[in-house]
């Protein structure tokens, strides 16, 4: 994977059985669904996959299941992010042994490290395994962000660092990240955290991680294709529609994602606390919104 990666990174939810245990058989159906729908890469377990609610063993088992289910058809990435670098290193080494393409690495939770320690975190992980790495910038959640200077140094010194996932939703930062990346390495990708593609692709973005692909893959891929072609007259109304869908799915997230999937005939069970099930009014609102966007008629039903 020496060429620049571009496209929609599928980020599936984690399926649970009625007793609350992980439903690995349904998770495999999810992976097949995403690949059959045309999603070119998959990362798991991201936060939409309830990674903080899973045990270490469950996370490792899901990564192994992901590799098996994908069967080499698309590149797959393991989110190894946890609360400490050594814990993440254990996850990274397991992911490498499981056969993933690469790993997603978030800044450390809680600690708010100074720049030297923050850089050391990424260098420790990147230099300890041979798989690809995607750095994950999410300053709203972890209270510390990857600066442009840090990004430039990481791209220059970590040859296996292939991309940045930026969930700052700050166009000033995102545009600067694209500028820095293009000046250091032409095949480096910058992804936006979720599907704000119409604003990110024109400044150099390569795509996004996906909140919506398990619900509306046709809509998301149509938006990406229009943006990549520079067909903004087509892309603009699609982005408006995606914006409405994102607002819906990020309410009581990821329970709303799971309920939307159920409405489309792809049930994946409930969520783990502290994420609570949807109340009746939000269930009704979810159905009404999906119907008003045409998703109930235009997107695949069932697996």
What is the secondary structure topology, with strand pairs?
Layout: E1 7-10, H1 24-37, E2 41-44, H2 56-70, E3 76-79, H3 85-98, E4 102-106, H4 115-128, E5 132-137, H5 139-142, H6 148-157, E6 161-166, H7 171-184, E7 189-192, H8 197-200, E8 207-210, H9 217-228, H10 232-249, H11 255-263, H12 280-292, H13 295-298
Parallel strand pairs: 1-2, 1-8, 2-3, 3-4, 4-5, 5-6, 6-7, 7-8
Task: Write a compact overview of the structure shown.
This protein is of the alpha/beta class and 303 residues long.
Report the C-alpha radius of gyration, rounded.
Answer: 18 Å
Strand content: 5-15%
CATH class membership: Alpha Beta
By secondary-structure content and strand pairing, the structural class works out as alpha/beta
Helix content: 40-55%
pLDDT average, as an integer? 97
Shape: globular
Find the CATH topology.
Answer: TIM Barrel
> Distance between termini?
29 Å
Strand order, largest beta sheet: 1-2-3-4-5-6-7-8
What is the H/E string?
Answer: EHEHEHEHEHHEHEHEHHHHH
CATH architecture: Alpha-Beta Barrel
| Total beta strand runs | 8
Q: Give the low-confidence spans.
A: none
Largest sheet, if any? 8 strands, parallel, barrel
CATH superfamily: Aldolase class I
Helix count, DSSP H or I runs of 4 or more residues = 13
Number of domains: 1
């Amino acid at each position: 994977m020496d060429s620049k990666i571009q496209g929609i990174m599928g980020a599936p939810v984690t399926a649970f059985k009625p007793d609350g245990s992980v439903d690995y058989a349904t998770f495999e159906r999810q992976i097949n669904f995403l690949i059959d729908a045309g999603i070119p890469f998959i990362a798991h377990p991201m936060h939409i996959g309830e990674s903080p609610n899973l045990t270490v063993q469950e996370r490792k088992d899901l990564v192994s299941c992901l590799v098996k289910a994908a069967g080499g058809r698309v590149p797959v990435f393991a989110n190894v992010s946890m609360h400490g670098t050594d814990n993440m290193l254990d996850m990274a080494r397991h992911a490498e042994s499981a056969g993933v393409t690469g790993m997603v690495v978030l800044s450390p939770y809680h600690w708010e490290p100074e720049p030297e320690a923050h850089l050391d975190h990424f260098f420790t992980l990147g230099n300890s395994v041979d798989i690809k790495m995607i750095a994950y910038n999410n300053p709203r959640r972890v209270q510390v962000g990857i600066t442009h200077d840090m990004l430039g140094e990481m791209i220059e010194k970590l040859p296996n660092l292939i991309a940045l996932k930026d969930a700052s939703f700050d166009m000033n930062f995102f545009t600067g990240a694209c500028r820095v990346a293009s000046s250091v390495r032409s095949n480096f990708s910058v992804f936006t955290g979720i599907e704000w593609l119409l604003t990110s692709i024109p400044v150099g973005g390569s795509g996004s991680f996906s909140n919506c692909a398990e619900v509306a893959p046709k809509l998301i891929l149509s938006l990406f294709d229009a943006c990549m072609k520079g067909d903004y007259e087509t892309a603009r109304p699609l982005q408006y529609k995606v914006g409405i869908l994102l607002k819906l799915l990020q309410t009581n997230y990821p329970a709303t994602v799971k309920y939307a999937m159920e409405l489309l005939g792809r049930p994946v069970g409930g969520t783990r606390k502290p994420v609570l099930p949807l109340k009746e009014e939000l269930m009704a609102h979810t159905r009404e919104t999906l119907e008003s966007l045409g998703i109930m008629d235009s997107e695949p039903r069932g697996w």
